[in-house]
Specification:
- The protein is an alpha+beta fold and 179 residues long.
- It has five helices and eight strands; from the N terminus they run αβαβααββββαββ.
- Strand 7 and strand 8 form a beta hairpin.
- It starts with 20 loop residues before the first helix and ends with a strand.
Length: 179
């Protein structure tokens, strides 16, 4: 019989710049007595990856362009945040009353270029998507393999809202070891 088990990895610290996510995952799974096994799939949020990679932006250091100022008025958003969104975007898909839908440089279509404030220390700090989430996933996967000898798949995820629906879903923005 084929089964799927979802096991939360507990006891992870808040990720900081320079943290080795693969090592932290291995240590936490051992500590909670759920060691990693061959063909496990590990899902890591993009915010954790961006924080570990030092990909955090302080909005106080962002100078809004004229275009950002205009869009900020239209959307009721902080002009510095709008500028950060524009810097992460390849193209604006739609500007709504409260939202900016863009295609990111990596081809992901999402609100606010995937920029997130949750679990980021500091009122004016934000976490954009990783520069290359596939490479990030591969680094985590390689570290887990080095430490355990186990082949796992790693997915870097981002939370997306769904138009006209309640709730949100997570989508894979980077993968390694899985098609």
């Amino acid at each position: 019989m084929n089964t799927v088990k979802v096991i939360a990895i507990e006891g992870l610290p808040l990720i900081q710049k320079g943290d080795n996510i693969g090592r932290l995952i291995v240590e936490a799974t051992k500590k909670q007595n759920t060691p990693l096994q061959e063909k496990d799939v590990i899902i890591v949020t993009h915010v954790a990856v961006s924080k570990a990679e030092g990909n955090i932006i302080n909005l106080d250091e962002v100078k809004p362009s004229q275009r950002a100022l205009e869009i900020a008025k239209q959307t009721n958003k902080d002009p510095a945040l709008v500028e950060a969104i524009l810097q992460e975007a390849k193209e604006i898909v739609r500007i709504g009353q409260n939202s900016i839908i863009v295609e990111t440089r990596n081809g992901i279509i999402c609100a606010n270029a995937g920029i997130d404030r949750s679990n980021v220390a500091g009122d004016r700090n934000i976490a954009p998507l990783p520069k290359d989430a596939n490479v990030s996933a591969q680094h985590i996967r390689s570290e887990i393999k080095r430490l355990t000898g186990v082949n796992v798949a790693v997915i870097v995820s981002d939370t997306h809202g769904r138009p006209f629906r309640m709730g949100e879903i997570n989508v894979a923005i980077g993968v390694a070891g899985i098609k």
